[in-house]
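Let's study a protein:

===
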Amino acid sequence: MITKLIHTIDQIIKFGLKPDLTINKNERDLSLEKSLIIIYNLYFDINYEYDNTDYSEYNEHKYADI
């Protein structure tokens, strides 16, 4: 468990330690999101399946009268 935690933390901090890292924003965000899920999973001891569904953007004007 501790090895997985250390590896996950290393995955997160590489974005701050390697300023020349070339990765697009979507890949970076996905990597960070998955890393945080792993940390939560280790902390709370839960099983989580990542949802790869591409949801449409929230349209606040559509629901402005609610």
